Amino acid sequence: VQLVESGGGLVQSGGSLNLSCVASGFIFKLYTVNWYRQAPGKERELVASVSSVVDGTKYTDSVKDRFSIIRDNIKNEVHLRMDSLKPEDSGVYYCNAHHQWQQIEYWGQGTQVTVSS
Question: Which of 85, 93, 94, 98 is deepest in the core (most CB within 10 A)?
Answer without folding.
Answer: 93
